[in-house]
Write a structure and sequence with these properties.
Blueprint: E1 2-7, E2 27-28, E3 31-32, H1 35-43, E4 48-54, H2 58-65, E5 74-80, H3 86-91, H4 94-97, E6 102-106, E7 109-111, H5 116-121, E8 126-132, E9 140-145, E10 148-154, E11 163-171, H6 175-179, H7 192-201, E12 205-209, E13 214-216, H8 220-237
Parallel strand pairs: 1-4, 1-6, 4-5, 8-12
Antiparallel strand pairs: 2-3, 6-11, 7-13, 8-11, 9-10
Length: 253
Amino acid sequence: MKGIILAGGTGSRLGVLTKVTNKHLLPVYDKPMIFYPLQTMIASGIKDIIIVSGKGHAGQFLELLGSGSEFGVHLSYEVQEKAGGIAHALALCQNFIGHDDMLVLLADNIFEDDFKKDIKEFLGGAKIFLKRVKDPQRYGVVRIHEGQIVNIQEKPKKPLSNLAQSGAYIYDFRVFNIIRTLKPSHRGELEITDVNNKYLEIGQLKYSILKGFWLDAGEIESLSQTSEFIRRRRLKDGSESGWKAPDGQDGRA
């Protein structure tokens, strides 16, 4: 299985913080945000990873992460010329993936869980990862009935459940065929929820509920809260708690 980290987008929710850099290079406590999904990939046993960034920032990711050798992985890079949605960014990785399966992570999502077990048990189709939240209207909301996914709604005004779709997905290579059938949403983007609903229609969508914490650092308030959460977690555990980067790459002065 290969890994895809999606670090594109305009970062508009973070205002002036992203005028000079990509939001995924902003610090979350003592490390650049991009280090967290990269660490999750490594913990999940994935060594071949591509990072998709927006136009104008690819060089910054390359300068920070290089070839990935210091992390014990091989990194490739792709540029999303314009913000066309998560599914659009994913489609850019088809040549990299070939006929392999893939773990896809949104770079502004931070997970305590790794996905090693899910990868080992994956037999094709798609799998999404859910978490109960207090503000489901901010996310793709998943309704479950008798252990099966009934439907997924993208940021509904009146959510039918409190199960949010996190920014982690496992797909087989058929995802690229599905993306080619999509039409842009009212936002002018190709939505990942539409991809997942297509897998649901053909009975190939599974799910798992995350056991550990899941943090979305894509907004100013959540970025601040996430940094504080990580700081307190480090102090409580008295260690790096699995978030350790290679020597010289841990964000410390």
